Amino acid sequence: MAGCRGTEMSNGSEGGLEFNPMKEYMILSHGQQIAVAVLCTLMGLLSALENVAVLYLILSSQRLRRKPSYLFIGSLAGADFLASVIFACNFVIFHVFHGVDSKAIFLLKIGSVTMTFTASVGSLLLTAVDRYLCLCYPPTYKALVTRGRALVALCVMWVLSALISYLPLMGWTCCPSPCSELFPLIPNDYLLGWLLFITILFSGIIYTYGYVLWKAHRHVASLAEHQDRQVPGIARMRLDVRLAKTLGLVLAVLLICWFPALALMGHSLVTTLSDQVREAFAFCSMLCLVNSMVNPIIYALRSGEIRSAAQHCLRGWKKYLQGLGSEGKEEVPRSSVTETEADVKTTTGPAPRTPGCSNC
């Protein structure tokens, strides 16, 4: 309960500026501080640039803004951009420069970090559900996932993420409840509740993507049987398998980046942690930043339509810089399709030759 005694001291000081409980969480050595500063700066900057590029490509194209799939990807990019900036800055200030804040400011910062990462996982879940519906119910996908419903789902997800993340700022702090050994002022019962919520989100992601992987695995046998023949649905099977490769990569990266930190959080609820374990947690938590850095590559840069939009923008900027013409059209070339769009188009047979699809 040393943290509680320190909290009482800080609350009794003027403005609560002598925030003593934070000191016992600053356990990194000088060499570790340098490593944290370098890694957070490089990964945070790269992640921010990647995600802001994806946001620009989606928001600058009226065609992409109308599609629910890209609203979810845009939400993911926005959450990962905020997570990159907020987490990297606050993590370096806390562990490297030992920045001291008042109780309210600190809880606002940690709540903001929690909200951005929670919204990132929530956006991943919505993207997973979107691809699940597009794959399993292609004839009715357009009616099921409208732009209005997508916006409502995103609003609900962001509001719920904010409410859960800022509960400590609203008063759910430790003392007299046991304090977390990993986060100052955060009670163990709140940490347990947040872990359960994140587990629910991860379970939804794993289930939906797992179903797609299972279905694609069944199609592999069919592809082998009809390899030399043109039969209805063969193109759809090939797209299922190609999509499964992307989803397999998604699950692998998600588990690698999040499991170590989540496992240590759960471990901290049942036992006392040594300084070595808390130091390991500091570096494991940066893996979540890696996930934000990799998400744009997996979800956006693997999309043919966003790649076409990027090429279109680059050509427009090149012409503008050379003074050869205007900025070019805003629309993305209609010949490009996303994997989910192609899934819907090939539901009833081989992929048609006509470009464009309004279902996804």
UniProtKB/TrEMBL annotation:
Compartmental location: Cell membrane; Cell projection, Neuron projection
Q: Which SUPFAM superfamilies match?
A: Family A G protein-coupled receptor-like
Which portions of the sequence form the region Disordered? 331-360
**Pfam families membership:** 7tm_1 (PF00001)
Alphabetically list the UniProt keywords. Cell membrane, Cell projection, G-protein coupled receptor, Glycoprotein, Membrane, Receptor, Transducer, Transmembrane, Transmembrane helix
- Entries under SMART domains matching the protein: 7TM_GPCR_Srsx
**Which ranges carry the G-protein coupled receptors family 1 profile domain?**
50-299
Family matches, as PROSITE patterns: G_PROTEIN_RECEP_F1_1 (PS00237), G_PROTEIN_RECEP_F1_2 (PS50262)
Under Gene3D superfamilies, the record lists: Rhodopsin 7-helix transmembrane proteins (1.20.1070.10)
Q: How does it sit in the membrane?
A: Multi-pass membrane protein
| InterPro entries the UniProt entry points to | Canbinoid_rcpt_2, Cnbnoid_rcpt, GPCR_Rhodpsn, GPCR_Rhodpsn_7TM
Q: Where is the composition biased (Polar residues)?
A: 335-349
Q: Which ranges does the record mark as transmembrane?
A: 34-58, 70-94, 106-129, 150-171, 191-214, 246-268, 280-301
User: Member of which family?
Assistant: Belongs to the G-protein coupled receptor 1 family.
Q: What is this protein called?
A: Cannabinoid receptor 2
Q: Which organism is it from?
A: Apodemus speciosus (Large Japanese field mouse)
